[in-house]
Amino acid sequence: MVLNESVAIVTGSGRGIGRAIALELAAAGVKVVVNYAGRSEKAEETVSMIREAGGEGIAVQADVSQAAEVDRLVQTALDHFGKIDILVNNAGITRDGLLLRMKEADWDAVLSTNLKGVFLCTKAVSKGMLKQRSGAIVNISSVVGLSGNAGQANYAAAKAGIIGFSKSTAKELASRGIRVNVVAPGYICTDMTETLPEGVQHEISQRIPLSRLGRPEDVAKVVRFLVSPESAYITGQVVCVDGGMEM
Ligand code: NAP
Predict the structure, then answer these.
(1) Given the CA of residue 213, which atom of ligand 1 is nearest to it?
(2) What does the alpha-carbon distance between residue 120 and residue 46 come to, in Å, rounded to a whole number?
(3) How many A from CA of 175 to the centre of ligand 1?
(4) Domain 7-235 has CATH 3.40.50.1000
(5) pLDDT grade, residue 1 (50/70/90)?
(6) What is the CA radius of gyration of the chain?
(7) What's the pLDDT at 115?
(8) Distance between CA 43 and CA 141 in Å, rounded?
(9) Which of 94, 119, 192, 200 to mutate to test the pocket of ligand 1 (most atoms within 8 A of CB)?
(10) Domain spans of the chain?
(11) Per-residue model confidence as pLDDT tens digits over 134-183
(12) Is residue 155 annotated as a catalytic residue, yes or no?
């Protein structure tokens, strides 16, 4: 329980990778603020799972792309738990399409949630972290942010943007004891990827040296390491959790 009594906000943790991260942190003794956009039943389910396992958590709705909602999210976390030690920027969406067919609204939606959301949440929590002179932030990018992907120009731009943002903030905040790292998952089985036809999933798994798609828990365990004191000398790094796909 190396993280006992720490407090975390995990954005988009009602389901998928975010939920696995919330459960993994709660199991390590972290009090977790489970943020979500609209699916309250899923977020409440995550909180119930945390409580059933003996942990502490609350669900807070907030759209991470809206500054006022992010401020309310952070204030609710502070009112409830008194401090914020950990931020995991996990909330993300896709609006895939080939360049010539990609609508401006698809570009704006993905950049607003996936990149601006990371900026707003980081800025909002960093004030308290600077004061307490400690904090750990993990931003969830994607291997697509490193390699690009046809049909995902908006998503890849946002995910690559997260990497530049994270390295900049890692440099800016390091002297005050705040670490910022990035996890770049490959293909992980969640609602986001379940729409892929089975044939495509099989074809993808054949391109993965470890021969399988990832599980949300594969990502969550790395996040737990990166927010724990065990990674005290690591900042500004990108860790791919992709079964070896991008090496
Ligand atoms: P998911 O199953 O679709 O879940 C997305 C989560 O984000 C949900 O909890 C959703 O809330 C929340 N969310 C969406 N927009 C939001 C907003 N504006 N404000 C607050 N919360 C918002 O996605 P996932 O597959 O777990 O992906 C999680 C992260 O990993 C994303 O950043 C994604 O880009 C990244 N990633 C995923 C994969 C993959 O293969 N799955 C690969 C690489 C990277 P509601 O439940 O309320 O809708």
Answers:
(1) 40
(2) 24
(3) 31
(4) no
(5) low
(6) 17
(7) 99
(8) 22
(9) 192
(10) 7-235
(11) 999 999 999 999 999 999 999 999 999 999 999 999 999 999 999 999 99
(12) yes
Q: Which of 78-87, 124-133, 166-175, 201-210 has the lowest mean pLDDT?
A: 201-210
Ligand 1, atom 3, lies closest to the CA of: 192
CA of 92 to the centre of ligand 1 (A): 4
Q: What is the per-residue pLDDT across 91-142, written as a single tens digit (0 to 9) for each?
A: 999 999 999 999 999 999 999 999 999 999 999 999 999 999 999 999 999 9
The closest alpha carbon to 89, from 154, 10, 32, 200, belongs to 10
**What's the rounded Cα separation, in Å, for the pair 150 and 136?**
33
Residue 42 Cβ < 6 Å to ligand 1: yes
Answer yes or no: is the C-beta of 63 below 6 A from any ligand 1 atom: yes
